[in-house]
Amino acid sequence: MSMNRTLQALAVLMALAISVPVATAKSSNPARALVQKLAPGTRIVQEFKGPMGLDGFVLHDPAKAGRKSRYGVVYVTASGKFAFAGAIYDATGKDVARSMAERYIPKPDLRPLLDAVRTKTSYFSEGAVKAPHVFVFFDPNCIYCNMLWKQTRDAVKAGQLRISWVPVAILKKTSMGRSVAILAAKDPVAAMREDEAHFDHQNEQGAMPPDAGDSAVRTKVEANTAFFVSNNMQGTPTLVYRDQSNKIHVIPGLPSAAGLKQILSTASPQ
Which of 120, 139, 210, 229 is the most exposed place for a label (fewest CB within 10 A)? Predict the structure, then answer.
């Protein structure tokens, strides 16, 4: 069982509140026994006390062919009968599970990643050269990428943000054709504007007519997509940038308004 499937299974258990029989019921630590049963092949690297008296476990899934190693967090009741994965919100709406993941999961050195994004992917840029600079992996059929594009228009026009857009093809069959058409265009920024300004929200697809006929550009988009997958990026958009203290950030998904404001105030021109 892969770690992704394990975490998905645990999320289902959380939603359905189904108890899981533990084969190693005689274990002195039934919570640990349940984790080891549900996630074979992974290693428990740390245990901690989670919210509501849950036992938290940081799991390490070793590198396998085609992908790097990764970490995840699972919560288990002390009885070892219930397992939880995913968000856990408190009364204020704060996702305490995310906060604990950020606290306990080992922090990787992301400096090589940013250098690789800059030198090993194909992208196009918009905005003032000396403005705070962010790389964004996007799929032309991604509705959240469309929302990010719209939310950044004022900052880009005002010279407050520079974005380098890295097209990938992961969501639909037309994603490759649209990504190729945008990257191959004489003016990719204008082509992306066409795709995003007329985005079909009902069907969640871009407006750029798919055209994957340029084999050289298709190879570039395929390489971007392979880079995205091999570096375990979690969905589009994914933002990568260096802040003014030289720390590298990887932000999966659409940032909140406050998150975007923070990026504008802390990202470096690189």
Answer: 120
